[in-house]
Amino acid sequence: MLQMKQTVTICINGQEYTHEVKTSITLLDFIREKACLTGTKKGCDNGDCGSCTVLLDGKAVLSCMMLAVQADGASVLTIEGLSDKEGLHPIQKAFIDSGAIQCGYCTPGMVMAALALLSVNPGPTESEIRAAMAGHLCRCSGYENIVKAVDTAAKAMAQAVYSGERRG
Amino acid sequence: MQEFSYKKALSLDEALEVLAAESHRIIAGGTDLMLKIKHKTAYPRSLLDISSVKELRYVREENGRISIGACTKLSDLAGSLLCKNASPLIFATANDMASAEIRNMGTVGGNLCSARANCGICFLPGCRAMTADRSEIPCRNAAWSDLLLPLSAYGANVVLKNKHGERNVMVSNFLQEEGTLDLKPDEIMTEVNFARPREGGWGYAKLREPSSMGFPFLVVAAQADNGKFNITIGGSVGHVYQFKQISEESVPSIVSLKLKFNRCLRLSQTYREKTAVSVILEAMRRASEGCCR
């Protein structure tokens, strides 16, 4: 008899979520429907738009293209895990300050991609930013302010590290 | 989405035992298979996940041969110093493929085993995803997968293992008619390997649409060889072509007489024929300048 359900435990934003799920549900559906964290968006559900991007064990992945059972035992960071008691993350602030948000549907994925980039490359060039954001579609903004926001965030985070503040 | 059972293997031996006992569809990164399941062009009843088999994730050099484990992520290749120094075509291709997110998920074995890049995602008129064609034959309108070209240019082998042993197959023979594979149901691709290529004189050019995340409609690798060039051509063409000792003057006749173009929903054959000459010459120019070392 084929087992079509499995119990899955995924640590999302530092909290463990354990659910018995169909083996065919995606990580995105687990995050949105089982963990009830709806900040991660379902856009194309096709691997094209990037709005479902989360960090899986520190790497940016498309949660719509991955099964929840594949992420069993893994650690996931979603947009809800970025802000804390001290307020918004510098990337979130930069997106707001740079006018990089219009309808906002693509923004959670963009912010997570920017975080993945800046965690390995704290001072990216414009072309490196554009390459890192290539898998993200925005149908409102025209992209220029998004590139500007990532650059602004990089500088703010470098300044924070230099000043000995939180968040490297 | 269609329902299926799922099993995760933690070692190669475990995966081979499972496959010997019962039939499963292999999933690693899943970026291709997930799309096929969503678009109902693949109907697996059970999946065997080998993405956690750590022994299949490596890039190394031994006795003058470069070996790449089948579960090596595309992002591993894109960041590999050995790859950068020893196999610049693969390094350039890996850095140029898809998006950072997909490179973090997709694997070398997965890219080769979905040799005809995914069908049913263009949604142009005639696209299989918009028709009643639900066969598992790869889409005739799709281009060949990205890694096929540099691995063919390097004359790479793939290593296929089952419970009873292993066999080596040239990449060019691994791929059969209509994009099907020389892969038995109880086999797993474990590695690709090739002799360390001669340094210098490699060039690479690509026609994509769109320029980021687009299909590789035409991809050319060129190697300068005593004033002439050895070229490998992939993309939306009949198969991966290889020509030896070609001069720049002979490129137009090769394109018009020897290349067979696939039907392609996005770019017309006339456009691709005209562009192919420029793309091949660009790869040759880059090879002359040693763009890929």
Structural summary, described in words:
The complex is a heterodimer of chains A (168) and B (293). With 168 residues, chain A is α+β, with helices and mostly antiparallel strands. Chain A has 2 domains: 76 residues, Beta-grasp domain (Ubiquitin-like (UB roll)); 73 residues, [2Fe-2S]-binding domain (DNA polymerase, domain 1). Chain A is 33% helix and 16% strand. In chain A, strand 1 and strand 2 form a beta hairpin. Chain B has 293 residues and is an alpha+beta fold. Chain B folds into 2 domains: 139 residues, Uridine Diphospho-n-acetylenolpyruvylglucosamine Reductase, domain 3 (2-Layer Sandwich); 88 residues, Enolase-like, domain 1. Helix content of chain B is 30%, strand content 25%. Chain B is built from 11 helices and 12 strands. In chain B, strands 4-5-8-6-7 form a 5-stranded antiparallel sheet. In chain B, strands 9-10-11-12 form a 4-stranded antiparallel sheet, sandwiched between helices. In chain B, helix 10 runs antiparallel to helix 11. At the A-B interface, strand 4 and helix 3 of A face strand 1, helix 2, strand 3 and helix 6 of B.
Chart the SSEs and their pairings.
The complex is a heterodimer of chains A (168) and B (293).
Chain A: E1 5-12, E2 15-22, H1 27-34, E3 53-56, E4 59-62, E5 75-77, H2 90-97, H3 107-120, H4 126-132, H5 144-162
Parallel strand pairs in A: 1-5
Antiparallel strand pairs in A: 1-2, 3-4, 3-5
Helix pairs in contact in A: 2-5
Chain B: E1 5-8, H1 12-21, E2 25-27, H2 33-38, E3 46-49, E4 59-62, E5 65-69, H3 74-78, H4 81-86, H5 88-96, H6 100-105, H7 108-113, H8 148-153, E6 157-162, E7 165-170, H9 171-174, E8 188-195, E9 202-209, E10 215-225, E11 228-235, E12 241-246, H10 251-258, H11 269-289
Parallel strand pairs in B: 1-3, 2-3
Antiparallel strand pairs in B: 4-5, 5-8, 6-7, 6-8, 9-10, 10-11, 11-12
